[in-house]
Design brief:
single chain, 4 domains, nine-stranded antiparallel sheet, three-stranded antiparallel sheet, 20 helices, 12 strands
Length: 580
């Protein structure tokens, strides 16, 4: 018989165990919530970083030029026929429109830089507009086209490091035999003098070190080699003297390997070439003439400092200035980038779009669904409901489970060696891609369908057979409708996985450059195409920086499709799911 005095001790031990259990459950719950929080945080960071990278791709800086469609250029045969219009020189039309904006540009090198503000591939689009409406011939037409990719990045602040300062002090601009002289009442250029001096002093130090090495080599050399080194030492002395003369002179000269200084005043743009030591004056090259008389005082002007030297930039200072001038004239406007969603791939980033890859993905998924869903569901129904339990069916089940874990690249090798090489299916076609992806998704669909069939209670089958239904009627009239939500969910998840696959499609040639949009028809099944994951791979592998935001935007489109498929699977499961 238990002593009454021991009961409080036993009760305390029980309470201690309960307390430990509650603390353990609390720690487990906290660990679970922490894991969920970490996973959600990583997902938000991942999607947020990709979304941030993709922001420049959703807008485009568009050139809106009034082009003169003269008959001699766009209708050389004079009959306004399709052949005559196609023989026209629409690139020249665009070039003439740019020269109208900057009539002072006459140098051949500068003209070549000016025409690089747009891509010549826009000329076919202008030709198509004239083909659609031949009445435009001989008239002035408002034509819109994207700005060149580098300059588009410049306006978005992603090409060069640039700062600007606005001044309200008067700025006197005069012309003399040496160019344009800019003089301010206050030493507004003083802030740049120190950095210029540091740059020149560093150059002198580097030249002096190089000269000292040459002198040491000359002391050890003999005959002709010593004479050659002596000549190099003389050249180094001249360079050092020239640099020192700049520091000792009245003005500092700006070189191409230094940051550029650009003054904007009343529609005129000036590229500074020298800056006075007192910071009050500067000499400049007039790139864009002002809208008013250049001899009048200027107030409310802007000094732009392009920290990235012109020698290392992807665009010249003149191109940056012309771009700014067109923005001031409201000829360049920022708008939604419809080219990204309406165009197929292109070698030029400003003209590249995802429409071709999106249509290719749609055609590929159609083939995948047609082949994988009926075959996978049928195989699962047979294995689960009708197949006898023997070593053969056991081996088939093991192989299906193993195939679900096979790397996707293996299916690509299978498609290359069997479907393309042996059966002769076309490379880089949605038909071949759909067949390969259907083989890859079959195990997933079979496993998901079998799990859905197993989830149906045995009482359903017993009740159906009890009222006289055959095995086939039981499966197709009772079991299959109840398992449909799970089957649909598994099929959609398998298809969404196929949508994001890249490796097997690379093996069958879908990495090819495709500039045309495949048609959503039976003919489009065999036309060359690409898919969204491969398009992302191609753009991220491209050299141009402007492709990077478009690759990130294509990822966002792909994520939207995958999330939509998974959301559809969740909706169908909740709509048709039965509680037992």
């Amino acid at each position: 018989m238990t002593d009454i005095s021991t009961r409080p001790t036993q009760q305390g031990a029980v309470e201690a165990r309960l307390a430990r259990r509650y603390r353990s459950e609390a720690r487990f719950r906290a660990a679970g919530l922490g894991a969920i929080f970490i996973a959600v945080t990583i997902l938000v960071i991942l999607v947020g970083s990709i979304g941030h990278q993709s922001l420049p791709a959703y807008t485009v800086n568009e050139l809106r030029l009034n082009v003169e469609l003269s008959e001699d250029l766009v209708d050389p045969l004079g009959d306004a026929s399709e052949d005559s219009i196609r023989a026209g020189s629409f690139t020249r039309v665009l070039q003439n429109a740019m020269r109208e904006e900057f009539p002072d540009v006459s140098n051949r090198r500068e003209l070549r830089e000016l025409f690089q503000l747009f891509n010549s591939l826009n000329a076919p689009q202008l030709m198509n507009e004239v083909l659609e409406d031949p009445n435009l011939i001989g008239q002035q037409h408002a034509f819109r086209m994207p700005l060149a990719d580098d300059l588009d990045l410049y306006l978005k602040g992603r090409l060069v490091e640039e700062t600007s300062a606005r001044f309200n002090t008067p700025l006197d601009i005069t012309s003399d035999g040496r160019g344009v002289l800019l003089r301010a009442q206050d030493p507004v250029f003083t802030d740049r003098l120190s950095s210029l001096r540091i740059t020149i002093e560093n150059d002198i130090t580097a030249e002096q070190a190089a000269r000292d090495r040459l002198v040491e080599q000359q002391a050890l050399a003999q005959d002709e080699e010593a004479e050659d080194l002596g000549v190099q030492v003389s050249f180094a002395d001249r360079r050092i003297s020239a640099l020192q003369a700049q520091l000792d002179g009245d003005e500092l000269t700006l070189r191409d390997d230094m940051p550029s200084l650009i003054v904007e005043s009343r529609g005129g743009f000036y590229k500074l070439t020298t800056v006075s030591i007192d910071g009050l004056a500067a000499r400049a090259e007039q790139v864009v003439p002002p809208l008013t008389d250049a001899n009048t005082d200027r107030s409310n002007w802007v000094l732009r400092i392009v920290e990235t030297p012109e020698a290392r930039g992807r665009a010249s200072d003149n191109q940056l200035i012309w771009t700014r001038a067109l923005v001031e004239r409201n000829i360049i406007r920022t708008t939604f980038n419809g080219y990204f969603f309406n165009n197929a791939d292109s070698r030029e980033p400003e003209l590249a779009g995802v429409r071709g890859a999106l249509f290719g993905s749609i055609l590929t998924l159609i083939i995948t669904v047609i082949l994988s869903v009926p075959v996978g569901v049928s195989a699962a129904i047979y294995l689960e409901e009708f197949a006898p339990k023997n070593p053969i069916t056991d081996m088939i089940e093991v192989n299906i489970n193993n195939l679900a874990a096979v790397p996707s690249i293996v299916f690509g090798i299978l498609g290359l060696s069997v479907f393309i090489t042996l059966f002769g299916l076309p490379r880089s076609a949605p038909l071949t891609a759909g067949v390969v992806l259907s083989l890859m998704t079959l195990p997933t669909i079979i496993i998901a369908t079998r799990a859905a069939l197993k989830a149906v209670p045995p009482s359903i089958r017993q009740a159906a057979m009890g009222v006289g239904a055959s095995s086939t009627q039981t499966v197709f009239h009772h079991v299959l409708p109840l398992a449909a939500p799970g089957i649909l969910t598994g099929a959609i998840i398998g298809i969404s996985r196929a949508l994001g696959e890249t490796a097997p499609l690379l093996m069958i040639g879908m990495v090819a450059f495709i500039a045309d949009v495949p048609s959503l028809s039976l003919e489009g099944m065999t036309e060359p195409a690409t898919v969204l994951p491969v398009q992302v791979f191609l753009w991220y592998d491209a050299a141009e920086r402007a492709f990077q935001p478009r690759a990130a935007a294509a990822i966002m489109v792909l994520l939207f499709l995958i999330i939509s498929f998974n959301a559809l699977a969740i909706y169908l499961r909740h709509k048709f799911e039965r509680r037992w």
